[in-house]
UniProtKB/TrEMBL annotation:
<comment type="similarity">
    <text>Belongs to the KduI family.</text>
</comment>
<keyword id="KW-0479">Metal-binding</keyword>
<comment type="function">
    <text>Catalyzes the isomerization of 5-dehydro-4-deoxy-D-glucuronate to 3-deoxy-D-glycero-2,5-hexodiulosonate.</text>
</comment>
<feature type="binding site">
    <location>
        <position position="196"/>
    </location>
    <ligand>
        <name>Zn(2+)</name>
    </ligand>
</feature>
<dbReference type="InterPro" id="IPR027449">
    <property type="entry name" value="KduI_N"/>
</dbReference>
<feature type="binding site">
    <location>
        <position position="201"/>
    </location>
    <ligand>
        <name>Zn(2+)</name>
    </ligand>
</feature>
<dbReference type="GO" id="GO:0008697">
    <property type="term" value="F:4-deoxy-L-threo-5-hexosulose-uronate ketol-isomerase activity"/>
</dbReference>
<feature type="binding site">
    <location>
        <position position="194"/>
    </location>
    <ligand>
        <name>Zn(2+)</name>
    </ligand>
</feature>
<feature type="binding site">
    <location>
        <position position="243"/>
    </location>
    <ligand>
        <name>Zn(2+)</name>
    </ligand>
</feature>
<dbReference type="InterPro" id="IPR014710">
    <property type="entry name" value="RmlC-like_jellyroll"/>
</dbReference>
<keyword id="KW-0413">Isomerase</keyword>
<keyword id="KW-0862">Zinc</keyword>
<dbReference type="InterPro" id="IPR007045">
    <property type="entry name" value="KduI"/>
</dbReference>
<dbReference type="InterPro" id="IPR021120">
    <property type="entry name" value="KduI/IolB_isomerase"/>
</dbReference>
<dbReference type="Pfam" id="PF04962">
    <property type="entry name" value="KduI"/>
</dbReference>
<dbReference type="InterPro" id="IPR011051">
    <property type="entry name" value="RmlC_Cupin_sf"/>
</dbReference>
<comment type="pathway">
    <text>Glycan metabolism; pectin degradation; 2-dehydro-3-deoxy-D-gluconate from pectin: step 4/5.</text>
</comment>
Amino acid sequence: MAIPIEQRYATNPAQVPGMTTKDLRDTYLIPEMFVPGEIRLTYTHHDRIVLGGATPAGGVLELGGYPEIRSEYFLEHRELGIVNVGGTGTVTADGEAYELVTGACLYLGRGIREVSFAGEQAQFYLFSAPAHTAYPAALVSPGEGTVRELGDQVTSNRRTLNQYIHENGIRSCQIVMGVTQLHPGSMWNTMPAHTHDRRTECYLYFDVPADARVIHLLGEREETRHLVVADRQAIISPSWSLHSGVGTAAYSFVWAMAGENQTFDDMDPAPVTDLR
């Protein structure tokens, strides 16, 4: 039997000032996504995104339908972006097998009925949004997407950004998805922070050393809060919330968005001098 999808209801900025640390973590942090032998999913009502992890641990896991999304099969009216943050594994979609090395990204479109995951060390991060039409499945390996070098070592945010699913790459209805790797000695994943009021964005932090943490900023620019995030934990960032983070060591993260448009640069900066 499939594990039920956890529900996270939408929030608004007025709720944040009264939240305790526990409230913030219960609302925006997904602490345990990769459980051996399980598919763990969370449904956020922000843009109706489903995110989670599939950890085959040597077996085969089937992604079926869920009553929480009223579907006979998962991709009946959804699309799915997958990034492998573990060892090499295989995703099979309607009989076609795709091998994903570490950091590879696979897009599966609406209408694919059977999806399964396999791999001894594989850890598949899943990000899904509603879809109004079908686009073909596509696989991209690390370094084969659009690569952008951003930031500067002087400001501790030198990073390599790999765009995989986007308007000039793998086509999708809503999803925009990629992986960013910080260079050694850099800790900020983006600064200045920003919002994009037209899309919800989720971060999955990975390659965070066991004795390190990422301090993730959220909230409005004049009412910021923070979460302390460990390896392979995810953050839900509503469209009204800024998002930025600094680590105690270099790390990587999967960023994924869905909402009104797919324009990567459609964002509103939050200058450091405006933050409170």
